[in-house]
Write a structure and sequence with these properties.
Layout (H helix, E strand, L loop, with lengths): L20 E4 L3 H14 L3 E4 L3 H11 L2 E6 L7 H11 L3 E7 L4 H9 L4 E4 L4 H9 L2
């Protein structure tokens, strides 16, 4: 069971379910980096998946949390996947990882509902920064 945490500014309990995570990344090193930080932060890992169908099933089942979504999967149209996630599961924060992204791409994805970005290669510091903003 996750440790209860509090927002020091408001004194209210934070909802631990908002940090439960689905990891849908291609590179094993990126997966390990994210998984290690989640363990260290005591955020529940709902699953590490290697296909979009399994990722969507975990999101559908839990309805709230964070999904780390690799935009570089061959054949995946990140804009379509993002629109589907944001439209159907507004309580799931979508964190997009991408190897080569322009500022314009990142702005467009943010406008479409992405909660954050991590440029590859993924490192613990960038994951921690994104989590801190959620």
């Amino acid at each position: 069971m996750p440790i209860q945490s509090f927002d020091m500014a408001t004194g209210k309990a934070k909802d631990p379910a908002r940090f439960q995570s689905v990891v849908f990344l291609r590179d094993e090193a990126d997966i390990e980096t994210v998984s290690a930080l989640l363990r260290k932060s005591r955020h529940p890992l709902l699953g590490r998946v290697d296909n979009l169908r399994d990722a969507m099933e975990l999101v559908r089942k839990h309805k709230k949390g964070v999904i780390y979504l690799d935009a570089d999967w061959p054949g995946m149209k990140i804009e379509e996947v993002l629109a589907g996630l944001v439209g159907r599961f507004p309580d799931f924060n979508v964190i997009i990882t991408k190897a080569n992204a322009t500022k314009e791409e990142l702005v467009a994805l943010r406008q479409q509902g992405a909660a954050g970005f991590i440029l590859k290669p993924v490192n613990a510091e960038s994951v921690a920064k994104v989590l801190a903003r959620l």
